[in-house]
Amino acid sequence: MNLTVPSSASVSVQGLSLDFGAVSVLKSLNLDIADGEFVVLLGPSGCGKSTLLNCIAGLLDISDGRIFIKGKNVTWQEPAERGIGMVFQSYALYPQMTVEKNLSFGLRVAGTPKDEIARRIARAAEILQIEPLLQRKPAALSGGQRQRVAIGRALVRDVDVFLFDEPLSNLDAKLRSELRVEIKLLHRKLKNTMIYVTHDQIEAMTLADRIAVMRGGVIQQFDAPPVIYNRPVNRFVAGFLGSPGMNFLEGRLEDGKGGWHFAADGISIPLSTYGFERNPVAGSAAFGIRPEHVALNSGEDWPFSMTATVEVVEPMGSDTLVWLLVAGQKFSVRVGAERAPAAGETVTIGFDPMRASLFDGEAGKRI
């Protein structure tokens, strides 16, 4: 296998595979991360995202492939030799030590001069706004403060690449939102390469320059958040992102007198405005469109419109989810709270297939 390192890559994973006995966990992965880029590994539990991060960190020995950091082959190097700082899901702070001692522990073990340790701790504490906490012990800190200290412990190492393994998963929703903003600001200040693992799509969409969506040890799509959200390469990616996820109508792709259209249980959606990415073939297919791309009682002339009866209304504060039956299948529409209809009401929905995604019925790939 002839492997090369792109000159612009801060981290390059090439042909990486990992087997646990007869079980293939990661399968020939390729991933090039640019210098200073914030990349999120996203996927459901068991997809291999944390395993991939641990391979990059050197915590797991891979079965095949190579890992490069800053152009250097680190495939078989120890974690301490890779020039990385890692933040784990658990804070892993020493309870008997103060914040200052927790931050300096690794540097003291490495024999770093005292004045250099003091300089790095002062810088990290200022960036993370934890100066008043330096003499406290972990038991006297909140969850958010503990996670800041855990990030600071990686920060004082003064490395090129930071690895985050679901660092916010133990926090409540409000604190997660606050620390998410702080991590984004931290990246903007430091401009270091960051690789971040999460199963939370909101974290991924808000933090990432690019997202690698994983499933079953394989990277399904690696692109900027708007591309992944609006042009998913397959049905899994389309359904994983979004809350609620994309609406899917099961049916058939057909070529009639008016051109290609999607048919399902009494409805026919014209596809004259849909941008096919490969030559369509008649057969089973799924038509996908996001709830916010559907208009409700708008009065506009849409390429496709129909009437339906409201089944359930879910108020969500700033907006409302309206659930209908379309072609006998569940279908959601996101509307402003002030425009929400009542359950049992007959409404008109409309949309432009240009905003939709069409997937073949067998492999689930984008058409």
Describe the structure.
With 367 residues, the protein is of the alpha+beta class. It has two domains: 9-232, P-loop containing nucleotide triphosphate hydrolases (Rossmann fold); 240-360, Nucleic acid-binding proteins (OB fold (Dihydrolipoamide Acetyltransferase, E2P)), CATH 2.40.50. The chain contains eight helices and 20 strands. It has helices at residues 49-57, 99-109, 114-128, 143-155, 173-190, 201-207, 225-230, 235-240; strands at residues 9-20, 23-34, 38-42, 64-69, 72-73, 84-87, 161-165, 193-198, 210-215, 218-223, 247-256, 259-264, 267-270, 283-289, 295-296, 304-315, 319-326, 329-336, 346-351, 357-360. The strands form four sheets. Strands 6-7-8-3-9-10 form a six-stranded mixed β-sheet, with helices on both faces. A five-stranded antiparallel β-sheet has the order 13-12-11-14-20. Helix 2 crosses helix 3 and helix 2 runs parallel beside helix 4 (143-155). The longest helix is centred in the middle third of the chain and has 18 residues, at 173-190. The radius of gyration is 25 Å and the shape is elongated. The mean pLDDT is 91. It holds the Pfam family ABC_tran. Residues 11-241 form the ABC transporter domain. Belongs to the ABC transporter superfamily. This is ABC transporter ATP-binding protein. Keywords: ATP-binding, Nucleotide-binding, Transport.
